[in-house]
Amino acid sequence: MADKIAIVTGGAGGIGRAVVTRLARAGFGIFVVDKNEKAGKETVELLREQDHVAEFYRVDLQYKTEVQDLFQTIYAKTKRIDALVNLAGGTLHKSPIQDFSLSDWREVINVNLKGTFLCCQAVLKPMKTRKEGIIINTSSNFGITGSGGRTAYAAAKAAIIAFTKSVAVEAAPFGVRANVIAPGLTATARVMTGHTETEWRKLGKQIPMGRAADPKDIAEAVNFLSSDESAYITGQLLHVNGGMVFT
Amino acid sequence: MKRLEQRIAIVTGAGQGIGRAIALGLAREGAGIVIADINEKSANKVKNEIEAAGGSALAIHADVSNENSVEAMVEKTLEAFRRVDILVNNAGIFPTSSVEEMSEADWDRVIGTNLIGAFLCARAVVPKFLKQGTGRIISFTSGRAFQGAKNGAHYAASKAGIIGFSKSLALELAPHGITVNVICPGITDTAQPRGHQTEEQIYAQAQRIPLGRIGQPEDLVGPAIFLASDAASFVTGQTILVNGGSIMW
After folding, report:
1. Which of A20, A245, A13, A30 is nearest to A147 (CA)?
2. A115, A131, B86, B138: which sits with the fewest CB atoms below 10 Å from its CB?
């Protein structure tokens, strides 16, 4: 087992894979948590091929019992979790408000916001007892600007910011830090498949730095916030968006 | 592997406090450092510290509020190192006065050093950055920019101005791959707060800071290295608050 343990939810996704690779390189043993079993197993294989310690768990994070089981199992094995990185989430449903069904809206909120809450809740007590720990949650530029058709996603991502600040205040006296990363347009397969090549290039050109984020850009920010170099940073929002949105 | 090998950084106000810590920190990561300070003696001391640790440094007397002095600072940098990759706008002053009693001269001096100084330094390095197709500008603001400062309206205005200036410059320079960001420390254990607060007042603030302590200059080093390095090549126009959670923005 590695010296430090990181749990990365959504760790098999486009950004997730870059994050787990970067954290593994920084010395973390990685628990990849994802809904997608095939991608999760592939991700763990990739890490193991590079001699990193990694395990995969398939979990649907909107369900409390699944989250509880997950963390019980991990704590039983490792006794400690040093970093929790909540990347799991997504737009899921895009629709004008008048056509947005309540069940779809609720699902978006649950997958993005409730999943983040449940995972934070599961690690906070042990982290506070050990008097160390790092939580990194994921918002989005849409959490600041809003986005037509994405009322639920934007609401969830904005909520994650205020939620994380509240966690930061509660956890700080125990030496536990919580911060949020807000990626802008990021070049993952999931995002790119929605666009033709011409559209994608056009979107990139609208960003001040002239391109979408590479998942590695996000991974470097996660690595910074999970290292001692950010020891005095808590409750903050870090945008990685090429100048697309400032707050 | 050192993250800033082969790079040259100008750090203004590097003779003491946060600036000194940043200069030493960037040097540890392999950067050659220009220690620009209005106090030449303290600049030379930091130069000696960096050289003693095996780094490369140049001490320059510079008044960031003076256009000619800033131009000369950049010229001397290029003469010595042939390039400049990183500018850290750290020089600043914080005299105290109520708005009613604030003299125009005091106002001009604070805005001139803290805000116009950052503009002059950035303007002086940008042509070289554009030619190189790379560059990093990191400027220091303050929590006062968000919350105001009793008896420090000029300071709060200058520090809020840094943020607006940096976002605008980020937009101008983004197409060229040059990033512009801001670091916002909270109360930090340096000479500056001691100009207007007692030791007791300074340390008492730790009780109101979520992480339970005031900042140390070293706390700002990791964030500065991050922003100066390739790791943050897609981060621009942003303000990173390094304050133990005292203000969450």
Report:
1. A245
2. A131
Q: What is the pLDDT of residues A106-122, one digit of tens each?
A: 999 999 999 999 999 99
The closest CB to that of B237, out of A175, A232, A246, belongs to: A246
Rounded to 5°, the CA angle A141-A161-B142 comes to 90
- Those residues with Cβ within 8 angstroms of residue B93's Cβ, 6 or more apart along the chain or in another chain: B109, B110, B113, B114, B155
Q: Tokens 């707050």 belong to which residue? A: A247
- Give the closest-approach CA distance of B103 to chain A in angstroms: 33
Q: What fold is seen in the domain B8-241? A: Rossmann fold (3.40.50)
| Structural domains of chain A, ranges and CATH numbers in brackets | 4-188+216-239 (3.40.50.720)
CA distance B150 to B133: 42
Residue B148: CA atoms inside 13 Å, Cβ hemisphere, count? 5
Which residues of chain B neighbour A217 with C-beta distances below 8 Å?
Answer: 233-235
Among A89, A58, A222, A68, which Cα is nearest to A155's?
A: A89
A73, with CB counted inside 10 A (0-12, 13-18, 19+), is middle
The model's confidence at residue A2, banded by pLDDT at 50, 70 and 90, is: confident
Which of A172, A209, A214 lies nearest to residue B236, judging by beta carbons? A209
Q: Any chain A CB within 8 A of the CB of B240?
A: yes
Distance between CA atoms of residues B46 and A38, nearest Å: 55
List chain A residues with CB under 8 Å of B222.
224, 227-231
Of the candidates B216, B237, B248, which has its C-beta nearest A236's C-beta? B248
Burial of B116 (0-12, 13-18, 19+ CB in 10 A): buried
Give A112's DSSP letter. I
What residue ranges do the domains of chain B occupy? Answer: 8-241
**Under an 8 A CB cutoff, do A172 and B244 touch?**
yes
ipTM: 0.84
Residue B203 appears among annotated catalytic residues: no
User: Which of B162, B211, B225, B240 to substitute to test the interface with A, most A CBs within 10 Å?
Assistant: B211
Q: Which of B183, B218, B26 is nearest to B92 (CA)?
A: B183
Is B248–A175 a contact, with Cβ atoms under 8 angstroms apart?
no
Residue B171 and residue A234: Cβ atoms within 8 Å? no
Taking the CA atoms of A185, A189, A195 and A197 in sequence, report the sign of the dihedral they define: positive
Please give the model's pTM, rounded to 2 decimal places. 0.91
